[in-house]
């Protein structure tokens, strides 16, 4: 399975910051930086031209700041999400950006892990929404909250993480036929032994069930399918 790659644009007036953010995002699975701009006016034209999925947006910029840029995105009904990365930390600015639909707000200076988490959360949200026409309440809760309740986090075995668990769960939800650990590993881009650990965990939790496939020769193959599917 070939996963959709997410197209991103960076809008920041500082070339060094743009370069740092670009290098950080390149380290996160599933993203392509398709453009960058040094102010809001340039950014608006770039979004109109390239139609990215998400914009990494600064606030303090010449010509048109990030607040006005985001408001212009909404005025022109651009189908684009925004992650704010800015030194702004006052309540009014933060509220304004969130009220205008920013999906995350990262305050400079920040560590790579914080941006990585924002990008991974966005990727999970984007792919999950794109792969469904309708959603149940439990599916919507998982997407909006990324399945990261404290109880779930605390119960994960050592070595497992929520992002990969969500990726595998989402993949299994879409598949109609039972899948082996090797097939899951190839689809997600992880090692087979790692996929097996996640699948075993999901089976123990009752989320998926084991469907052993017996061939005419050789060892039987363990395959897995979502519990709700026949």
From TrEMBL:
Pfam families: HTH_64 (PF20714), Response_reg (PF00072)
Localisation per UniProt entry: Cytoplasm
Cellular component annotations (GO), alphabetically ordered: cytoplasm
Signal sequence residues: none
Major place of residence: cytoplasm
UniProt-listed CDD domains: REC_citrate_TCS
In-chain residues carrying the UniProt-annotated modification 4-aspartylphosphate: 58
The entry's keywords: Activator, Cytoplasm, DNA-binding, Phosphoprotein, Transcription, Transcription regulation, Two-component regulatory system
SUPFAM superfamilies documented for this protein: CheY-like, Winged helix' DNA-binding domain
GO molecular function, one term: phosphorelay response regulator activity
Response regulatory domain: residues covered: 7-123
Name under which the protein is recorded: Two-component system response regulator
């Amino acid at each position: 399975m070939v996963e959709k790659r997410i197209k991103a644009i960076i809008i920041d007036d500082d070339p060094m910051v743009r370069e740092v953010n670009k290098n950080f995002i390149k380290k996160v699975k599933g993203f392509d930086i398709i453009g960058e701009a040094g102010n809001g006016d340039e950014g608006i034209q770039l979004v109109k031209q390239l139609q990215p999925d998400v914009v990494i947006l600064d606030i303090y910029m010449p010509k048109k700041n990030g607040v006005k840029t985001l408001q212009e995105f909404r005025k022109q009904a651009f189908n684009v999400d925004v992650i704010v990365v800015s030194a702004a930390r006052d309540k009014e600015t933060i509220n304004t950006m969130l009220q205008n639909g920013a999906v995350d707000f990262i305050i400079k200076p920040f560590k790579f892990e914080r941006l990585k988490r924002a990008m991974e959360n966005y990727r999970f949200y984007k792919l999950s929404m794109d792969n469904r026409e309708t959603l149940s309440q439990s599916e919507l809760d998982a997407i909006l909250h990324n399945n990261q309740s404290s109880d779930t986090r605390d119960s994960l075995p050592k070595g497992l993480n929520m992002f990969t668990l969500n990726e595998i769960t989402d993949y299994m939800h879409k598949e109609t036929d039972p899948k082996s650990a090797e097939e899951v590993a190839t689809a997600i881009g992880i090692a087979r032994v790692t996929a097996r650990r996640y699948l075993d965990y999901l089976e123990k939790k009752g989320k998926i069930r084991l469907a052993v496939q017996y061939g005419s020769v050789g060892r039987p193959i363990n395959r897995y399918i979502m519990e709700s599917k026949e």
